[in-house]
């Protein structure tokens, strides 16, 4: 039964109809990684960008030893910046510590902000403290989404010595930045973070208040 299903999915991936190929990729959610990855590889060079994007994402979810080198190659060489960004995101899902180096290079060297943004997010997912200096640089970006990613990632890597750098965003004009800050501070049980969360708990934006209160509930002042 399983082999029949796999054969059907394989045939769908060869369909001339891109919708069939997308449906086939979606159906791989119920398939083991070992069986899914060879099928995913069939459409990594698909002519339809949406199909390629979904396939790249799938490699981050269906994890085998093959996925890491494929994703790194896509991140470093694919001509489409959207696919490079997808590859960076998928590397974060893998949570493979080897991804620190290619993600760092992508952040510093790629000319597209979306790729750099995705790399910053994934570096946070890795939880690697080596990313701290890179993320501090990302805080200086004029793109508020990059600031959001950097603040969240600093929280995820628990870089407690970077608290002062992110606290300056407590008065950001962008409420999403303040929300990310409130969420990130939930990773730091310090007097400064608790004080900032009490401040954000009175924010004019309800989403910021909710995030701050949630983080406060996670923390208890050090005795």
TrEMBL record:
It comes from the Bacteria. Pfam families: HEAT_2. Coiled coil: none annotated. Keywords: Antenna complex, Phycobilisome. InterPro entries: ARM-like, ARM-type_fold, PBS_lyase_HEAT. GO terms for molecular function: oxidoreductase activity. GO terms for cellular component: phycobilisome. This is Phycocyanin alpha phycocyanobilin lyase related protein. It comes from Crocosphaera subtropica (strain ATCC 51142 / BH68). The lineage of its organism: Bacteria, Bacillati, Cyanobacteriota, Cyanophyceae, Oscillatoriophycideae.
């Amino acid at each position: 039964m399983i082999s029949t299903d796999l054969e059907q999915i394989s045939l769908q991936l060869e369909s001339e109809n891109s919708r069939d190929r997308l449906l086939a990729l979606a159906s791989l959610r119920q398939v083991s990684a070992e069986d899914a990855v060879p099928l995913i590889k069939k459409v990594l060079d698909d002519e339809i960008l949406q199909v390629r994007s979904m396939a790249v994402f799938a490699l981050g979810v269906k994890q085998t030893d093959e996925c890491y080198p494929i994703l790194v190659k896509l991140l470093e060489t694919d001509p489409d910046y959207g696919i490079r960004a997808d590859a960076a995101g998928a590397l974060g899902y893998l949570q493979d510590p080897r991804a620190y180096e290619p993600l760092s290079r992508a952040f510093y060297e790629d000319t597209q902000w979306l790729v750099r943004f995705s790399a910053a997010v994934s570096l946070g997912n890795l939880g690697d403290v080596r990313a701290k200096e890179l993320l501090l640089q990302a805080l200086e970006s004029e793109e508020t989404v990059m600031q959001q990613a950097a603040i969240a990632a600093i929280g995820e890597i628990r870089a407690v010595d970077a608290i002062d750098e992110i606290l300056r965003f407590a008065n950001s004009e962008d409420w999403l930045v303040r929300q990310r800050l409130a969420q990130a501070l939930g990773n730091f049980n310090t007097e400064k973070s608790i004080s900032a969360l009490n401040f954000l708990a009175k924010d004019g934006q309800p989403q910021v208040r909710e995030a701050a209160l949630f983080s406060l509930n996670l923390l208890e002042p050090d005795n």
